Amino acid sequence: MSAIPHIRDLRFDAMGAVPRHWHGGRRSVSTFFDNLSVFFPRGERFFVASVRAHEAAVRDPALHEAVRAFCAQEGMHGREHVRYNEHLAALGYPVAEMERRVVRILKLATWALPPRLRLAVTCALEHLTALLGHAILSDPRLLEGADPTMAALWRWHSAEENEHKSVAYDVFEAAGGTYPERAAMMALASVIFWAKVVEQQARMMRVDGTLASEEEWAALGRFLFVEPGGMLTLARHYADYFRPGFHPRDIDSDAALAAWQATQTAG
Question: Is the model's pTM score more than 0.85?
Fold first, then answer.
């Protein structure tokens, strides 16, 4: 059963002072993180709506409280990524157009899928974001050399994604969700999500003038798959989702979460 996430009203007001290529000057790597931010404000509204649509199925008081905290955390993530995306738009990236395309996909999912399958999509995407966060928290090299404001934002978001990683899943099970439903929606969501990531990466690199740069694409590939290679960790855990008895808590992030929380207490 889901633990109750902590609600932290953190704000990252110094976005305007963040350099364009904030990840140690790495252009394509900075853009990769920026690319992911485009999804969050609209995506997290979809997640919250999908979970809230099944609150009547939640009988356990602890899970009900976890749902409340999940919604609060996601709302704060969305607020900070709105600020983040406004900063990206000011730099000339086509954020509004990319967000419109994300919204079209989410509207199509809302129209085409019944509520429980929308919740299964939420479970799938929550698993992906939790895995990305797990990699960030577990391997300091993924944010080594990054601007302090951006490193703090991504670590905070990563920590809370792992705190609430099983909430949507537990609601899905309480609502009678089945293994075929969650496996099928993970396959569908994965294809659409990663296709959008590649598309948006190309659009943003075009603005930077690096779309045709073999050096920049190679640098991004090395970062993601070789050194530090966070995607390899993600891929190992991603496959776990297709195991019939899987639960998000099977992937242990407690030590990484505790280490991050210690830095907050010390600060």
Answer: yes
